[in-house]
Specification:
The chain is built from ten helices and 16 strands. It has 281 residues and is an alpha/beta fold. It has three domains: 99 residues, 3-Layer(aba) Sandwich (D-Maltodextrin-Binding Protein, domain 2); 78 residues, 3-Layer(aba) Sandwich (D-Maltodextrin-Binding Protein, domain 2), CATH 3.40.190; 89 residues, Alpha-Beta Plaits. Bound molecules: prephenic acid. The site of prephenic acid (PRE) has 14 residues, from helix 1, strand 3, helix 4 and helix 6.
């Protein structure tokens, strides 16, 4: 049975994502409280898969997760784009006006910003994950508290749903990366014919048009940039690392493009080569 490390407890979105990605297979999830804890667990057991949120269509990128991935020896073997819909839930018998505090994962709270702004009586308190917040409220019998979580988590922990679909925009998707140790990746990663996406990270020399030259080369080889994220390099003020995701139709063109940009970039790391995912509802 495959073991998949997730951030959060049963019923969280990582849990849902793990089951959807390994669709139909029996998997065992290994719950970790935080993303750094998840990477530590993965580093200590090369037989584990990992699943990690990397960006959301409302709240943006999970910046620290880019760095955790770069510093690890893990490879991306796949991705999942999951529609996220939140509910607000509390112990039964309370109306929303009787509540004073709302708990959830910071990304989930950000995705519901407009709803929460309409309810200023709710003090926003970040917790480790969505389902964990629901569990805490249920187990601690916390009257006055609400959780922002999935409908499944609210039901799992016996909370009463006060309102559904509270995300700011219905087009709320989170993109998850599926991670594995290189040996595991070689066995369970995508077949070469299915690879049409890659994630890389690099730095550029501080010269005129350095990034622009790289992007021009990628475009020449018909590489379609799907994401670019810069992150400050700690200790080198105003210098950045670039995390780039791109898709392509031809593996040959991809390899040619990489050869062409290699002399222009520094500290290149290929984080993974995998199959682009469709949206999962
Ligand atoms: O707290 C959870 O349920 C999670 O799985 C975390 C997480 C995240 O890291 O972004 C996953 C998907 C949603 O974007 C909200 C929260």
């Amino acid at each position: 049975m495959k073991k998949v490390t997730i951030q959060g407890v049963a019923g969280c979105y990582h849990d849902a994502a793990a089951h959807l990605y390994f669709n139909g297979e029996e998997i065992q999830t290994v719950a970790c409280e935080t993303f750094p804890a998840m990477f530590e667990t993965l580093a200590n057991d090369a037989s584990l898969f990992g699943i990690m949120a990397i960006e959301n269509t409302i709240a943006g990128s999970l910046l620290q997760n880019h760095e955790l991935l770069r510093q690890s020896n893990l490879s991306i073997i796949g991705e999942l784009k999951l529609r996220i819909s939140h509910v607000i839930a509390s112990l039964p018998g309370q109306t929303i006006d009787e509540l004073s505090e709302v708990n959830s994962h910071p990304m989930a709270l950000m995705q519901c910003e407009q709803f929460l702004r309409r309810h200023p009586n709710l003090k926003i308190v970040e917790r480790l994950d969505t389902a964990g917040s629901a569990k805490e409220i249920a187990e601690g019998n916390l009257t006055g508290h609400a959780a922002v979580c999935g409908e499944y988590a609210a039901n799992l922990y016996g909370l009463n749903i006060l309102e559904k679909g509270i995300e700011t925009n219905k087009r709320n998707f989170t993109r998850f990366l599926i991670l594995a140790d290189p040996l595991l990746a070689a066995e369970y990663g995508p077949a070469e014919r299915d690879i049409n996406k890659a994630s890389i990270v690099f730095t550029t020399p501080h010269t005129q048009g350095a990034l622009s030259k790289i992007l021009t080369i990628l475009s020449f080889f018909d590489i379609n940039l799907s994401k670019i994220q810069s992150m400050p390099i700690i200790g080198r003020e105003w210098e950045y690392r670039f995390y780039v995701d791109f898709t392509f139709d031809s593996l040959v063109r991809y390899h040619q493009a990489m050869e062409a940009v290699r002399p222009l970039i520094k500290d290149l790391k290929v984080l993974g080569e995998y199959a682009e995912a469709q949206m999962t509802h």
